[in-house]
Batch of 2 targets.
Target 1
Amino acid sequence: MTPSLRRTPNSPRHPSGPRSAVAGTPPTDLRRMLRERQLARNRKACLPCRERKVRCNHQQPCQTCIKRGHSDLCFYDQDPDLSGSHHDTTQPEIETTTGLGNDDTNETLVDNPTSHDIENSIPTPSLLGGNSIISVARSDSIQPLSDNERRTAFETGVLPLLGMDTTTDNGHVTRPGHSNSSLPDIQEMIELFSLYRDRVHPFQFVVDDLAEIEALVCSLVSRDKEARQVDNDSLCLLHAILAAGAQFSDLATAIRVSKSREKLQCALSFLGTFDLLWNPSKRLIQALLVLGHVLQNDMNPRAAWILGGTTIRLALSVGLHQSGPTPGALHLSPDRSRHLRLAIVWQDALLSLAFGRPPASQEMNIESDLPALTQPNSSGPALNYRQAMNWLCHLTLRHLQSRSETALLKDHGQIFQDFDGLESSLASHLRDQQRCASIQELQEYYSLQLHRNFVLSTFCRPILSTQFKRLCTDDEYTLILNRFRNALKQGVSAFIRLRSISSHATRSWAFVHNGLSSALLLSFIKQNPEAEDTRQIQAELIQILTERNEDIGQFSTAHKKALRAIQALQRLTEQETSGDGAMNQPDEHGPPDIVDGTTMPREPFNDSQDPRFDLCTLPVEERSLTRSLRSMLSLDDWLRTFDFDAFSPLESYNFIMSDQAPTDMSL
C-alpha cells in the first residue's frame, strides 16, 4: 500500500508546515484553524442556491452558479470573526503550500482528487467575487478595509462613466453621504426651506408630505435629532429642497447660483453608490424628481432629462405604474402612489415635449388618477391649478405622437376638442383674470396660460413646414393657423405678465423655454402690416428681459440665441414698416443685443454654435439650410437675406433652438 493509504485518518495535519513541526509545536492560530474546518464541514449552500433551493457543491463559485451564468453572484454567509482576516491569510497559505514536498502534494491529490480539477478549470474567488463590479459597489461592510485603493479607482474611473461622479470641484473624492452631508446653519436652512415651500412647491407638486419634511427640519433646528441619525434618502431630499429654494432666493445672482450648486452637490453625493438601485424608496424618488427640476433651472435640462429616465425606471421597478397600493417594499397607499405617478408624468411630459424626444412615462399616464372633466354649464367641481397641469401633461402624452404633418391633419379636430374641454373645466380664476383675488391666483392663471398655449402651439407647429399646406384644404389650413397664432400670442403675453409678479419667468427653465420659443416662432411667422399687437408683444418682451441683465446671463446657449434672433427680427420689422429703404443698409441705431449683462457685438452667427452640434441630427431637408446659414456673416445679415419662400420658419426655429445644453457642464 502507498504511504497515503496507510496514513490513519486521525493523524493531525496542517498545510503550512511539515508533520514533524506540527507534532512538536502547536500552531498559534489553532482556534482559527479548527473554526475554519468546522465551517467547511458544516458549510451552507451559497446564497443563489439557497434562494433557488438547488444543489450546491460549496465551491467558490459553485458548479450550479457557473452553469446558470451568474458566478459573480456566488456568495456565502461569512462568520463576522473570519470576514476581516480571510483575505489576509489566503495569500500566505498559498505561498507556503507551494513549498511542500512532492510526497505531501501527492497525498493531497489522493485525499481530494476532484478539488484539483475544479481549481484548474475555474477562476479563483479573487478573480470573480471580490473584484466584480457588484461586490465593489456593495456597502463598506462587505468590502474589507484593505480594498480602499480599488474602491477609489472604481469611484474615479467607473462612476463618472455611469453619470455618478463623486468628485468635487477641487478634485478630491467625496465619500457618498459623509463629507458633503453637513447641513447649513440654522438660519440658512430655515430660510431656504421657507423659500421652497412658498415659491417653488406651489408650482412643482413633488413632495405630497411636505409637512413631514418641515417636521424633520424643526427637529434638526431644535437639536432633537442629529444629521447622522437621519437616513440618507431623507437627507438627499432635504438637500435637494434647499438647492431648489436657493435658486428662487433674493440673493445676488452669483451667490444664488453658488449656493444652489453647493446644495445640489451635497444632494448628489448621496447618489454616489448603487444604494438607489438596491433599495429604492419614496424619499429617494421624491429627491430625484426635485433634483430634476433643480438641474433644469440650473440651465442643464439635458442632464435633467437623463436623470428623469432613471427616476422612471426606479418607479417602474417598485410597481408605481400599477393603480392601487404599491406592491413590494414601499407599501405606499393608493393616494401617495398616485401623487408620485402624477409628479413623474408632469416632469417627463414637459421635458419630452421641449426636447422632441419620446416620453418614458407612458405606463404611468393613467387617466383614472385624474379628476373627471366637467361639462359646460354643469355644477361639478372645477379643476384647480395642480389638477389642470396634471390634465395638461396627460393630454401632452396622449397627443405627443401627433407632431407630424399627416398626424396633425388627421387629429387636429380631436386635439382642439380636448383642449377646449380642459379649458371649460377650469376654476373661475384660471379662466378669467378678472376672477383672481390674490397674487397666488394671478401667478397660477398666467402660469397655466403659458404652459397650455405652449403645448397647443407645439402640436400645431407642423403647419409651418413646407409640405403641410399641400396636404390640407384652405379652410383646414386657416383654422389651424389661427389657433396656432393665437396660442403663441397668448403664451408670450402670459410670460410677460408673469415676469412682473413672479421670479419663475426668469428662474425656471420651463417658463423661460416656453416663453422664448413661443416668441421666436411668433417672430418667424409673416404678419400682416397692420398686426400692431404682435410688434407690441415683441417690443415688450425684449424690454422686460433686458431690464435685468444678470438674469439673461443665466440663460442657456439656445435661449440667448433665441433672444438675439427676436431682437434682430424686431429691427427688421421696424425697417420694413419705415419704408425708407433702410432694410438694405446696416442697422446702426437699432437696440443692441444684450446678453450676459453686456452689449453684444454682432458676431458671426456660426460662432455661437456649440461644437457638439452635428448636421446628422437634423432632417435631410434642413441640412442645406444649415450649411447656407453657416456661410452667412452675421445673424442680422442672415435674417435680412432670409427667403421665407425657400425655407420654412420651422426649419429656422429648429436651427436656432438646436443647442439646449450649457457650454459648462460642471456643477
Target 2
Amino acid sequence: MTRVREATEKDVDGIREIFLAAYGEHYAHPDFYDPEFLKKLVYDDDTLILVAEDDETGRVLGTGSVILDLGAFGDLLGEFGRLVVHPEGRKRGIGTALMKARIERVRERLHIAIVENRAVHPWSQRISDAHGFSCAGFLPSKLRFEDRENISYYVRHFGDALRLRRNHPHLVPEAYELADQVLRSCGLSGDVIVDADSPAYHDTGSCDLEEMTSQGYTSLLHFERGRVAHREIFGPVKLHVGLFQLRVSNYRYLLARRNGHLVGGVGFHVDRKEDTARILELVSADAGPLRVLLSEVTRLCQETEGVKYIEVDVSAYSPRMQRTLLELGYLPGAYIPAMTFHRVERLDAVRMVRLLAPLEVGDVKLHHASQPVAAIVTDLFRKRTVLPRLAESLPGTPLFQGLDPEQTECLAGICTLASFRCGQVLTAAGSPAGQAYLLLSGAAEVATDPDSPAVGTVGPGETVGEYSLLRGAPHSAGATAREDIEAAVLTREALESLIRRRPDIGLVLYRNLA
C-alpha cells in the first residue's frame, strides 16, 4: 500500500531519484535534479508538492505538484504538473492517487487548473480525462527532451469559474472549430460568434523600437490600453509587479516610440532551456504600434534568440488581434474557457502558437479524448506550412505584382495547401468559379476541352483559375496535373472576406487583372 502526503525536506532526495529514474539525463528541466531547488519548492507557499510513499518500506515512489500562481494575480489559475512515478512503482495506481489528492487539496483555491500532458504516451492524458479534465488544445513541438515533443493540453474548472464566464466570444473562422469542440467537451453550449470581417491591425510604420531599461517604465504604466482596459493579450505577469521583479524573472519589454514619444510596449519571456518564448502583455497609447511590436518580437525570437516555439494567450473577444497574429504566422493551438479574470467576469482565451521549426507531429500516442482536438490543430498547422513558400512565390506572379510585403503576407495567410496526383483534374472547363491555384511544384496541362489537345502548360509560380475567381465567371479552360502537384489554394469566399477587410489588396489584384 501507498499513502499520499505533502512533501517535506526529507523527501528531496527521493523526489530527485524519481526524476532520474524516469527521465535519465535528458529531462528538459535539470533543476529537478538539484536538491537545493527542490528544497525551495517544498517550502514555497505557491507550490504544492505531494509524494506517494510505500507504507512498508517508507520509500517515495511518486510525486506530483501544483503551481498555484500560474496566472496573473487574482486569476486563480494553477498548473497540475510534474506527475512522475518511479518505474518500480508503476501499475499500482500511484498516478491516480496523486491526481485525486491534488484535486482535493486545491479545489477550494482555484477556479481553473491546466495540465500539459506529454503526447509520447497516453497515460497522463488518460488520468487527466478520468478526473474531470477536458482536452483544450494540442501544442506542437513545445517541449524539448532529446527531440521536441508535443503537448496535449487539458483544463478543468472549479467553483464559480464557469458561472462568471462571459459568453459569446467573437472568433476568427480559423479558431471556431477548435473553440466549439473545447466548449462542448467542457459541458458548455457552443456560443461562439464567428467574425470573418474584422480587419487586422495595420503596421502604421514610423516607430522606433528599443528594449526597456529603467527609462520608459513609468510612462508605460500610465497607459490603460492593454493593462486595465481593452486587454487583448493575457499573461502570467503584468507591468505593475515592478521593475525589480521583471528583471529577476528575466521578463523583457520592447518599447515603441513615435516622434520620440513612447506609444507602447510588449512584454515577453524567453525560456532558453526549452527554446520557447511567451508574449506576456501588450500595452499602448493607441492601436498604432500594436502590429509592429508583435512583428518585431517574433523576428527577435527567431533571428536573435534561436526560439523554436512562441505562444501568446489572446482574448477570445478580440478578433482584430486574432487576425493580426494569424497574419504574422500564429495559429490557434488551444482554447481555454474562462481562463482569466477581468473586472467582474472571466474571459475565454485562444492560445496562439508561432512555430519557428518544421512541424513534426511524429508518432504521438493520443488518448481518445485528445484525438479530435489534435486533429483540428495539426490540420491547421499542416495547411499553413505553405505560408513561407507562398510569400516567396507571390511577388513573381503577374496577378500579385505590386503587393507590398505586408499585403503579400495577408494574402498568403488565407491560402491553404493542396496536393494533386498525376492525371487529377484541378479545374474543368465550364465549371463554376470557386478557387484558384498557385503551383508550388509540379506542372499542369491546360485545355479548352477534355477531348482537345493541351493549349499550354503551367508550372511553379504560375496560377490556374485566377481569372474565373476574380470575375466570378465559369472556367474557360480546364487544367489537369501532368505530374504530381503541390499548390496553394485561394478560395473565392476567403478572398472576398479579405477584400472586405483590405480593399487596398483588392485594388491591386483587379488592377493587375485589367
